[in-house]
Amino acid sequence: MSGVTKSKKLVNSVERCVDECLAGLVATNPGLQLLEGHRVVVRADVASLVNAGTVTIMSGGGSGHEPAHAGYIGEGMLSGAVAGAVFTSPPPGSILAAIRAIGTNNKGGVVAVVKNYTGDRLNFGLAVERAKAEGIKADMVVVGEDCALTSADKTAGRRGLCGTVLIHKIAGALALKGCPLEEVVKIAKDATTKMGTVGLSLTPCSLPGAGPSFQLAADEMELGLGIHGEAGVKRMKLQSAKDAVKTVLDHMTNPKTSTHLTLPKGESVALMVNNLGGTSVLELNIVAHEAVTYLESMGVSVDRMYCGIFMTSLEMAGISLTVLRLDDTLKACLDAPTSAPGWQHPLLAAGITDRRTPKVMKVTDTGRQQSSDVDTPKGSTLSQGDADRLFSALQAIGQSLLAAEERLNSLDLQSGDGDCGSTMARGAKDLVEQLGKRDSPGLPVSCPSECAVALSAIAENIMGGSSGALYSLFLTAAAVPLRSGVGASDWAKALQAGITAVMRYGGAEPGHRTMLDPLHAAATTFSKQLSAAKPVEAFTAAVKAAETAAEATTKMAAQAGRASYVSANLLTQPDPGAVAVVIWMKAVLEKLA
User: Fold this and answer.
1) 228, 251, 512, 520: which one is catalytic?
2) Which family, according to UniProt (predicted)?
3) 169 annotated among ligand-binding-site residues
């Protein structure tokens, strides 16, 4: 034994704690129900929303933040929420199931409110894209209001914290009012730019079955930590409530930081004082009083005040303060009624006495293809000769990535955890196995759009991790242009569609030292060359451009992914993800030339 003492938790088992938590929530709130086979909760009256064509709002993320997110399901807030394991993003399949439950045949559409963490952004993004591919109207609002970071460089971006709950309320009120999806998204996105959150911890939290997530001395507190127990921006000596509140709000509004919230004098704001899980009511009320007093001393008018448990980090002792700049629209949204139990004390309906067994709503997944939850319409098909060439190209991709496993792992040791090659090899091995024999292929090589969807399932379910999610997003989006055509220009459009999806949900851009650098260089070159050269010649130039771009990542400053947290002077080799792109592109070219 390591000597680390495991935390004491009132659970039956670590493996079932999330499922039993959701069962308890539904058992004590008759307006909620579970989706069978998924960690998803939806409104019990969801059918009436769908039939009325009302915009439905969903959210979710890792568990351990209760009452977020399922506690905010109710009239005037969320229509559904999906839960992952503790502090872990939920899988795309469950997210898609939630979207289907509240979005299938719903003319109003679905808005997903997502916290700005890489896993959430990728998995929710993939599910949204797949829902759109099925004909469900859907969009996503990413919340990243964390003001703790002192610089925008070398990070995965501002984290989504307790302010996400305010966006749930705003979006839900707009939907209740009957606003169209586009208006809900516009106002919600605008609201995310008008708020800030900073957290303060006195003790760490501990996952079920594990010890403390970090260590704090008895006379220390941590400023600016996230909701998963990740480190903050400053560790300091214990302060009084008055001084601690001043420290939090001064940091939040410090114009010298790139993530600060501007609060002009005379501004009208909403203030949310959030209990991170283990703070006493006595302390919370003192903090609330000090926060209102200090904001008013800054010349700010606190017009809306919320104090309680809104988004926790298990049993962490600490608080977070969220400030939202208000206008008349946002005030009306915050004041609109809601039945969500997490926003107010849950009220149990009269006449319902047996809450031991939660309601269960059965959802039938449509269009399940292999291990994927995607229902993709038939697309344009290839001639037998071209289908054979696609088969050969896919086979070459698999073999090339398998052969490159050790090389990619070695490159990844500098910037990640040394598993890039193994991740790609897992997908490559399954690709080769599913591809089968040329005379009876196991993948739909005659229909590129369906083939791309099948490959996206391999990336999601077999590769796993961020790489799997990124490639699954890329392939899912690329499948759409290939439905209407399979000419060279359609492949160029597919390549660009995949890149656009990866940029949107992954958060990286060309120049950030990622797989996007060779992809973007290849797509740009291929499109330009097609106007004057034959498709094979254009693709040859594209592969050469990709190789040059991948090599150029050696001298780039990492601004996305794990490498963004590594010191620049340690990054002396090309990005492994970028090199992997060149490897499979060369494999394709070899079979086309």
Assistant:
1) 228
2) Belongs to the dihydroxyacetone kinase (DAK) family.
3) no
